Amino acid sequence: MTQTIRITLVEDNHDYRDIITLTLGAESDIELINQFGTSEAALRELKAMPAGTTPHLILLDLRLPGMSGLEALPHFREALPDTPVIVLTQSDNEADVLAAISRGAAGYLLKSSTLEKLTEGVRTVMTGGAALDVSIAGFILKTLQKKLTPQEINTILTPRELEILTLLSEGLVKKEIALGLNISFATVDTHIRHIYEKLDVQNAPSAVRKAFNLGLFSAR
Amino acid sequence: MAVELNQRYTQQKTMLQRMIWLATLLLVGIGFILLIDRSLRQRAIHRTREQIAADLHDELSANLHAIGLLSDFVRREKENPLLLDTLMQRMRSLTERTAAATKYCTNMLESEGLYDDLAEDMRRTATRITTDHQHDLSFEQEVRLQDISPRRRIDLFLFYKECLTNIIRHAEATQITTHLIAGETKVTLTIADNGHGLNGEVPASLKRRARLLKSTLTTESLASGGTRVTLQFKTRYAHKRKS
Questions:
Q1: What's the pLDDT at A9?
Q2: CATH topology of domain B117-243
Q3: In terms of domains, do A108 and A210 share one?
Q4: With CB atoms 3.0 to 4.6 Å apart as the test, which of A201, A218, B160, B192 could cross-link to B228 if both were Cys?
Q5: Structural domain includes residue A45
Q6: Residue ranges of the domains in chain B?
Q7: Numbered residues of chain B with Cβ closer than 8 Å to any chain A Cβ
């Protein structure tokens, strides 16, 4: 990607804001253009920004003074429909996750994420993918199982591929999956490549999100 | 004559018994109402305590995650000794602030009442809520605040928090000034902002809090723009302090 990703941060904790500013500021392709402690101030400023200067992406905390992040999410989507919002919170509460996704969040990352996961999430969303914390993805697939019949699922992914995708969503790496299923690392790698090809995605979070949207986990 | 006297005596006795029953019922009713009131108040205090705990938990966790991010960054910049030194200093000061927040959290959880250190609670809340604003918060005779009755301390704090929330939600202000005076016989809280003023009525929630404090609440539009809210109530401090 050649274009710098312009980010707005909505976060009320001073220290966390400072560190995000410092760490994202060191990324060559990311620029934190502004930050706000409340949704109200962020919405007001973003609506007043001239076209072309608005952010490419918004990082939004949920627990904010005044209007909460969940309340504000639809307002951000309405004000800047083309700007994806990644929720960056410490809440792994199931209701919050579901509400954020249903209100249009393009990603849900926990503040406990590493710097690498955070920047990877930002880049994934900017390339059309979804950023989901692995623990959140695991919860989604476990709790929202519906839509397709086992026969339909098998036409998309083989049972083995589905099994591997489930393990991926639970945060296991290839080596652990290979050990767990008693197969070689290369076999796991091949299965994962096939999963990505079949689902037309580039990485594990996107695969989990797409599988969830398709209801592929319903038969498990 | 004797029969009539007996009849009157019986009637009066019946009336007396009814009165006794009525008085008993009344007393039981009053006791019941007092119990319900006490229970409602305790529930409200419990909810407030939960809210404070959630805020503190949020603050502590965010600080710890910030330290985590900083350590990721340090690892990445390990070949840059100049930057490394600055980063380590930041991590140190962040750790100290987190330790202070932890101590504050522990004190709050261990204290019997709420807002025992009202001034510190107000400072912390103001920092969190008005993070985008230039906020000047000052106190006069701060030491007297802890001798205000616990119930009033809670209501005063909640009034203040409600005011700040209203300002960030509706006023579009950039500057806020808070001044709290714990005078000899009365407490005066003044909150002014440079927003676009109150549109019509004072919010009902503020009026309700002012009523609970048995206080007078005045609002005025400032010539320079913005609003000033003044809350004042008489008080007798629990312990007379030598100032």
A1: 96
A2: Heat Shock Protein 90 (3.30.565)
A3: no
A4: B192
A5: yes
A6: 1-110, 117-243
A7: 54, 58-59, 61-63, 65-66, 68-70, 72-73, 76-77, 90, 94, 97, 127-132, 164-165, 168-169, 172
Condensed to tens digits (0 to 9), the pLDDT of residues B158-171 reads: 899 999 999 998 88
Q: What is the pLDDT of residue A120?
A: 92
Is residue A58 within 8 Å of residue A85, measured between CB atoms? yes
SS3 B228: strand
Q: Are residues A97 and A165 in the same domain?
A: no
Residues of A in Cβ contact (< 8 Å) with B59: 13
- Say which residue, A10 or A139, is predicted with more confidence: A10
Phi, psi of B24, deg, nearest 5: -65, -45
A133 chain-B contacts, CB cut-off 8 A:
none
Q: Positive or negative, the Cα torsion across A44, A47, A53, A56?
A: positive
Angle at which helix A115-126 crosses helix A14-25, to 10 degrees, equals 70
Q: Residue A206 belongs to a domain with what CATH number?
A: 1.10.10.10
Phi first, then psi: give them for residue A113, nearest 5 degrees.
Answer: -60, 150
Strand partners, B220: B228
Distance from the Cα of A34 to chain B's closest Cα (Å) equals 11
| Boundary of a domain, candidates A132, A157, A174 | A132
Q: Cβ distance B157 to B122 under 8 Å?
A: yes
Residues in chain A closer than 8 A to B63 (CB atoms): 13, 15-16
What percent of chain B shows pLDDT beyond 70?
Answer: 97
Backbone angles phi, psi at B88, to 5 degrees: -65, -35
pLDDT at A1 over 60: no
Mark which of A108, A132, A156 sits at the end of a domain.
Answer: A132
Alpha carbon of A114: minimum distance to chain B alpha carbons (Å): 6
CB contacts of A32 in chain B (<8 Å) are: none
CB-CB under 8 Å, B63 with A15: yes
Compare all CA atoms of chain A with the CA of B166 and give the residue at the minimum distance.
Answer: A66
B contacts of A63 (beta carbons < 8 Å): 54, 58
Give the pLDDT score at B105. Answer: 79
Q: Give the range of the structural domain holding residue A14, as residue numbers without chain letter.
A: 5-132
Pair (A177, A198) in one structural domain: yes
* Number of domain units in chain A: 2
DSSP B169: I
Quick check: A36 and B63 CB within 8 A?
no
- Complex ipTM value: 0.72
